[in-house]
Amino acid sequence: MKSYEKKVFSFADSDELSKSICTYIENLSKESIEKHGRFTVAFSGGSLPKTVSKYLVQSSNVDFTKWYVFFADERCVKHDDSDSNYLLVKQEFLSKLRPENCVPESQVISINEDLVNNSEEAADDYEEKLVKVFVGKETVRYPVFDLLLLGMGPDGHTCSLFPGFPQVQETGSWVTNIDNSPKPPPSRITLTLPVLNDAHNVAFVNSGSQKAQIIKEILQDKSTAYPAGLVSPQRGNLYWFMDSQSSSLLSPSVISEFSNKL
C-alpha cells in the first residue's frame, strides 16, 4: 500500500522559499508528465503566484507546454480587473515564460467573463470545464489534480472557503460560489473541500508573521477550526512551505528537513 507524506518546511527567507518551491514543482511536473502526459495545477491568488514563479519561470527543466493551469478560486470579475486571479497569474507567471516553452492559452482554464454577474452560473460553468478536462482521464467522483498551490489568509481561509461559511461544508459540487465574501470582492467561485482532498499533491505556501499563530494552531495543535486545517488529501501528499516568520511559533519537532529529492 502506498504511503503518503505530510511535511512542513521552513526557510530562512522568501528567496529560499521560492527556490525550494521551484525545485519541488520541477520534480513533480516531470514525474506527472512521464506518468500521464500532462501536469494539472491550480493556483490560488494573493502573494502565492509571485513567490512560486520567481525561479520557476527561469527553469529549463519543465515542459510547460504539457501544463494545464486552473484556478483554485476566482473572483467574479473580468480578466483585466485588478482583482482577477487570472490576471495575477498571467502577469506574475504565464507572461514571463519563454514563447517556445509556455502554457498554451487553450490549457489555461479560466472563469467565463460573460458570467461574472452571476456567481452560481459561473461556478457551474467552471465545473463543466473541469469535467471536460478530467473525465475520461480519471474516472473518479472528483477531479484529481497533480498539484494544488494554496495560500492561507490570516483568518485561516484557503481558496474562497472562509471560516463559518456554508461553502466549507459543500460536498455535492466540484466548484461552488459565494456572494458575501468577508474579503472584497464579495462574489467568487472556489473549488470545494472534497476536490482539495482528492488531489495527488497539495502545497501550502505562506510567508509573514501575521499567519504564525493560526499556522501553529493548525500544524501543532491540530485545530480543525479553520478551512486550511481541513485540507488533508486522502490519497495524496500535503506539504507546507513557509518562511521563518510564518513558522516562528512552531516547535522544531513539527518542521521537516527539506530535501531536493521530494
Automatic annotation (TrEMBL):
GO terms for biological process, alphabetical: carbohydrate metabolic process; pentose-phosphate shunt
Pathway: Carbohydrate degradation; pentose phosphate pathway; D-ribulose 5-phosphate from D-glucose 6-phosphate (oxidative stage): step 2/3
Family: Belongs to the glucosamine/galactosamine-6-phosphate isomerase family. 6-phosphogluconolactonase subfamily.
Glucosamine/galactosamine-6-phosphate isomerase domain residues: 13-240
Catalytic activity reported: 6-phospho-D-glucono-1,5-lactone + H2O = 6-phospho-D-gluconate + H(+)
Function: Hydrolysis of 6-phosphogluconolactone to 6-phosphogluconate.
Organism expressing this protein natively: Smittium culicis
Protein name, per record: 6-phosphogluconolactonase
Keyword Hydrolase attributed: yes
EC number(s) reported in the record: 3.1.1.31
InterPro entries the UniProt entry points to: 6-phosphogluconolactonase_DevB, 6PGL, Glc/Gal-6P_isomerase, NagB/RpiA_transferase-like
CDD domains to which the protein is assigned, alphabetical: 6PGL (cd01400)
Keywords from the UniProt entry: Hydrolase
GO MF annotation, one: 6-phosphogluconolactonase activity
